[in-house]
Amino acid sequence: MTRAGGTVSAAILVLSVCTGVAQAKGPGASESEVDSSGGRSGTTLTSKIVFSGVTRGRGGGAEGVTPVGDWTPPACWYEPRSADDFAKYVEDMYTETVNTPGQHSYAKASVGMFRDEYKDGTYRNYNLDQKDKGNWWVSVRDEDRWMEPEAQLCDKQPFWVENGASPQVPNAVTPQVLAELAYNRIQLPTTKVNLAPAGTTKVNLPTWAWLDKARFKEVSVTASLAVPGLNIQATTTAKPVSLKLEPGTPDAETYPGSGECTINADGSIGAPYAAGKADQTPPCGLKYLRSSGGGTFKLQATVTWQISWTGSGGAGGTLPDGTFGNAQDVRVQEIQSVNR
Predict the structure, then answer these.
(1) 224 Cβ contact partners less than 8 Å away, ≥ 6 residues apart
(2) Tens digits of per-residue pLDDT, 35-91?
(3) Is the separation of the CB atoms in 49 and 145 below 8 Å?
(4) What is the dihedral of CA 3, 7, 8, 9, to 10 degrees?
(5) Which residues share a beta bridge with 137?
(6) Is residue 62 within 8 Å of 187, Cβ to Cβ?
(7) DSSP per position, 125-191
(8) Are the C-beta atoms of residues 190 and 242 closer than 8 Å to each other?
(9) What does each C-alpha distance from 79 to 126, 151, 158, 160 come to in angstroms?
C-alpha cells in the first residue's frame, strides 16, 4: 500500500472491510421514539438520527411501503461526527485490528495508514484543536440494506466540514434526506379488507369490500439529527388514497371495472354491505365467475398512499406514492339448484 497525492489508497478498504463503515441503527417499536444515539457497538459507529412516530421494526421484521416507480430511499448517506467521537473510533479500530490474533498484515497496514492520515498526515490529531468549529462527516449505511449495491455508493472517506458549511457530496444529511429516510421507516396497517359475504362467497354473487376509516388514516414518522453545528428534522406523512383489488383469478370481475376503489370523503374506502342492498352494485368489490374448487383464491388488496413531507426551515414537498398490501384467502362455492 502506498500514498498517492497525499491521500490514503487503503482508506476505503478500511472503512468497508474492517468494521469501519458506520452502520445506521434503525427504528424500533411502533408508536415509540427510537433514539439512534450515535454511540458505538464494538468499533462501529451507529447513526445519530432519531426516528419517532409510527415506525417499523429494524431487521426486516415488518415490510415497509413500496415506492411507485424506480425511486428508493437512500441506502447510504453522510452525517456528522464530533472530533472526539471520530478520534476515539479510529483509535479503537486501530487497536482492535493490530491486536487481533491472526489478523492479516494487509489489514494492519491499511488501518495504520488510515489512522496516520487523520492523526499525523493531511490532518493533525483528528482536528481536536478545532472541535468547536466543525465536524467529521462519515458514511453511514442502512443496516437493513447494507448488501444492496446502492449502499456501496457512499464511498468517500471521512472529511472535515466547518460549522454552517454544506458538505459537497450526494446524500449528505439535509431535511429532505431525513424525509426520505423516514419514508423507509413508516409502518402501515395491514391491508385486510372486510368482505360480505365474509370468507366464503358464491359464484356470480357480488362481494362487497371496504376498509374502515378509523384504521386507514394518515401516519407519520419524524427523523431528526441534533449535533453541535447541525440541528434539523423532517416529518414524512403517508395518506391513503385508493384500494386496488386483484381477485387472484382471471375469471372474476371487479367493481369498479379497474379494480381501483378511491377513498371516500370521510376517509373510508368502499361501503359495508347492509340489508336491502342485495340488488345493488357495490361501490368497491368483486364477483367471481367460477368456483375455487377445494381451495381458495388469493385476493390481493393493495392500498396506495400519497407521501408528503415538511422539514426544518420551511422545507417540504412530495415524495413518490407508495403501496402496501397483502393477500387473503377467498373461498368461492358453486350454487347448487335442483330442477323439477
Answers:
(1) 49, 50, 52, 178, 232, 233, 234
(2) 333 443 334 567 899 999 988 765 444 467 899 999 999 999 999 999 999 999 999
(3) no
(4) -80
(5) 80, 159
(6) yes
(7) GGGGGGTTTEEEEEEEEEGGGTTSGGGGS--PPPEEEETTPPP-STTB--HHHHHHHHHTTB-PPP-
(8) no
(9) 17, 15, 10, 11
Residue position matching grid coordinates 415524495 = 319
Q: Take residue 263 and report the three cell numbers written for it.
A: 377513498
Q: How many CA atoms within 13 Å lie on the side-chain side of 166?
A: 6
Cell triple for 317: 414537498
Distances (CA, A) of 70 to 4, 66, 188, 328: 38, 10, 20, 27
**What is d(CA 188, CA 319) in angstroms, rounded to the nearest whole number?**
16
Q: What is the pLDDT of residues 101-159, one digit of tens each?
A: 999 999 999 999 999 999 999 999 999 999 999 999 999 988 888 889 999 899 999 99
Closest to 260 (Cα-Cα) out of 201, 197, 323: 323
Say if CB 26 and CB 184 are below 8 A apart: no
Q: Which residues contact 176 (CB under 8 A, 6 or more apart)?
A: 234, 309, 311, 315, 317
